[in-house]
Amino acid sequence: MSWIETEEQLEEALSRPTGADVAAAAALKGDLMLLGAGGKMGPSLARLARRASDEAGVARRVLAVSRFSTPGLAEELERAGVETLAGDLLDEEFLSGLPEAANIVYMTGRKFGSTGQEWLTWAMNTLAPARVAERFRRSRIVAFSTGNVYALTRSETGGPTEEEAPGPVGEYAQSCLGRERMFQYFSQKHGTPAALLRLNYAVEPRYGVLRDVAERVLRKEPIDLTMGTVNVIWQRDANSVALRAFAHCQSPPLILNLTGAEMISVRWLAQRFGERFGVEPLFSGGEAETALLSNASRCHRLFGPPEASIEQVIGWVGRWIEAGGRGLGKPTHFEQRDGRF
Asked: Would residue 332 count as lying in a domain?
């Protein structure tokens, strides 16, 4: 296993295209625009798309749209060959002034801070998608959604498939289903080809469920076991699916659960990090019969299983923390069961 210990190594690994990514970039027609590209996944997806297009020998614009609240991020992306546009997608004048692009990745969303400001969450998660879907009705759209649109399910079922009826818990999850409905409505209205990716926990060393659990083990803080099982996927593998999903856009939109193949025990995960750090994990509560899970077998049939195994990712995250690698300070709150974020 090659270790990832520096920011440069991590950014290179997260944006390194596979042969399948390069083939997808070669087959894709037109420019690519990422809306909401300043979050946790957007920068690496923008770099991945740029590198895959370059390796495919395709001259295309890769544009990243965000408010760019992180200092220096826009400049970093520009140096990587990604064009940046700063603005708010709820600003109608800004949205209408964006250039045309044949391919849109929609990544904007609001989760944390929703409780108490539900009105803003609904605006970001339903109003903005509606306006984007109307504005880019002649494009192909790959939109990120979330596994939170499903109800909590029993672990032994393997998690809900895309045929399961949604059962969102709480206003955040309800608004995410609203986001899907907006893209579905405008896809039906205009014939816009689209794909909706219900993501369950992308991870990399700076954030994610694995980082959350590892930090608590290291700090000797009790780990709540009530949400006893989780799905995760290495962020690069998730972004690869987003790039390759354009070939499967359709109207009405294709829905895909996007996560890893394993259902992972939180207790086991903590014990693995405990063994690595030489720390006995502390636990609170016990595993409930249900958890937030997804069955991504349809996605794996289309694109193959994720390249990074859970053992590899545990190793990368553990080594990163041991080397003093920074975190983003953005806990997932994966243990929340009442839908309040």
From this structure: no
Beta carbons within 8 Å of 330's beta carbon, 6+ residues apart: 40, 112, 207
Percentage of residues of the chain with pLDDT beyond 90: 91
337 lies in some domain: no
Assess if residue 1 is contained within a domain. no
Packing angle, helices 235-244 and 7-14, rounded to 10: 30
In this structure, what token pair is assigned to residue 333? Answer: 């709150």
Query: How far are the Cα atoms of 62, 87, 90, 318 from residue 67, in angstroms, in the given order?
Result: 17, 5, 11, 32
How confident is the model over 27-67, as pLDDT tens digits?
A: 999 999 999 999 999 999 999 999 999 999 999 999 999 99
Q: How many structural domains comprise the chain?
A: 1
pLDDT score for 1: 54
- Percent of the chain whose predicted confidence (pLDDT) is above 70: 100
130-140 pLDDT, tens digit each: 999 999 999 99
The residue range of the domain holding 284 is 7-322
E strand segments, the chain: 32-35, 62-66, 83-86, 103-106, 140-146, 153-154, 194-199, 202-203, 223-224, 229-230, 233-234, 254-258, 264-265, 283-284, 290-291
Residue in 79, 75, 14, 69 with CA at minimum distance from that of residue 36: 69
